[in-house]
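quick one, 157 residues, struct below
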Amino acid sequence: MSEAAGEQRRFELAAFAPYRIAVLGRQISERLGAAYEGEGVTIPEWRVLAVIAQAPSVAARDVVAKTPMDKMAVSRSVASLEEKGLIARAPTIDKRVSALRLTRKGRAVFDRIAGIALEFEASLLSHLHPDERRIFFDGLQRLERAVRAEEAPRAAK
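---
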């Protein structure tokens, strides 16, 4: 419903929040993609590297849970990163699961890309006042929770 009770809002793509968020996300990914490509890493591979870099070792299922990627995309990225010598697998107690960790080369690539990504983020966020940044991140967190809450009932069906 819009401002007037009972009046339905007219759909305008340019004013549709999910569309605007998707477009901005794609623009940011494409812009940062140049940094990844300069290191020989794709966007999905970067996501996997970034998750693995957050802990001493990570299972592939944890990467799936922490990224917007499906199991096959994670599996392909893990295989490619391993082939490039950026990650290594280590056995775990559960023989069905491998622990993934960055190699020395992988850590160096991650550090270079992360530096570029942080510079880009700082440049982007410099267009917002510090109070606006806080509100922006609070809003993102609330929207993420709302989407998860919407997904939960569907998953239960």
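Residues 17-152 form a domain with the Arc Repressor Mutant, subunit A fold (CATH 1.10.10.10).
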